[in-house]
Amino acid sequence: MSRDYSTYDAKAKFSEILRKVRAGQRVVISYRGEKVAEVRPLSKRKPSGLLARLKELEERGVLEPPKKVKKGSLKPLVHKPGALARFLESRD
User: Fold this and answer.
1) What's the chain's average pLDDT?
2) 3-state per-residue secondary structure call for 34-90
3) What domains can be seen in the chain, in order of their start residue?
């Protein structure tokens, strides 16, 4: 997502623009209504893939690492014998 700023606003809010760019956003600067420049983060050669992206989001504080659960600590809330059979019967 990009945000548009006029040249006057870009000059007055340069620190804000840099914060947005450092956060990964693109900023477009216009002069008299015409888009003339784009400020965007430099592409870093990062490993791609799901695990790398999850690690990056954890570092930025967007995600929290998973909590460790003891093996066997999760138990069913309710045990109703024959629930699967009743469910399958209801689908007929």
Assistant:
1) 86
2) EEEEEECCCCCCCCCCHHHHHHHHHHHCCCCCCCCCCCCCCCCCCCCCCHHHHHHHH
3) 2-60 (3.40.1620.10)
Rounded distance, CA 20 to CA 3, Å?
A: 9
pTM (two decimals): 0.46
| Sheet-wide strand order for 26-31 | 2-6, 26-31, 34-39
User: In degrees, to the nearest 5, what angle opens at C-alpha 59 toward C-alphas 58 and 65?
Assistant: 30
Task: Determine phi and psi for 84, rounding to 5 degrees.
Answer: -65, -45
